[in-house]
Amino acid sequence: MIGVLGYSTQVACIPPAGNASALPDQDFLTQAVEAARGALAHAGVVTPERIGAVYVGIPAEAPHGRPLAADVCDVLGVSERAHCADLSCAGKGGTEAFFAVCNLVKPSAVEVGLALAVDALTPVGPEVRLAGAAAYLIGRHPDEMLATVDLEFAARAESVSSPGTLERAPGPSLDGQKLQQMTRELMARKRLRPADFAHVAFRLPDETLPPAIAVALGFVERQLSAGYLGAGFAPSGPSLGLMQLAAMLDVAEPAETLLVCALGEGVGADAFVLTASERVSDARTRLVGTRPQIEQERRAWAALYAGVTPLARS
Questions:
Q1: Which of 53, 79, 134, 151 is the right S-S partner for 113, CB 3.0 to 4.6 Å?
Q2: pTM metric for this prediction
């Protein structure tokens, strides 16, 4: 058995291209380190010395200029013997890092692993955007878990790119079809129905698609409401899948089941099922929730960037 021991998120408000730079004290490494420290504080039972692997989902064109995972290890005081790597995976680097860490913890290759995802803080386009960072500590001691992870439930959808080409297959509708197909097969294999899940989240390159996909799969609005963060995050950012998972864990009750599916751009998809434990409620006093951070950033841009294109609300 493996599970989440602690998690944390960071949210930054990014101004439009051509405007002022990112807010003070917000940079790529800082976002990652603060999310990791938040996860350690949230877990309350893990020290950096216990971490044996650090995997970080990063944007395709990471602005850091050197391996981010190695720098995170150095800042946190993680052992030099720890496995560490940056993963760039067309928008689903975060769930890919989560998957990799889970598969190191499961066979006891490491005692505790840290999965991270960090979005670039570079202004893009005419709108104010959100950039996220998410951190998850994964371990195998049941009495430390906030939620168990069913790795047998991890799934891979076929790539949406044509074999032998580097071009992405056309249209967001194909993204949606692939994600629906994967989710249906996944539930059928485990003999689960939409009603068995308390919360669900879908990460796609087109951030407007999840509500329609949820309805097509038989889910209702209340199941999607916690994990759907709406427009505002960069579509190609690696953090969104793990940000959505955090938003669901923020409100999950013990024994509730969660589903998160993340589709990358031309690289297939990941899906995980988690079941919240008794510790999930007690640990909330050590956590700043994801949605409150998003609302705080929206208020910040409203005060600082009056007159620019508004940030879309969820």
A1: 53
A2: 0.89
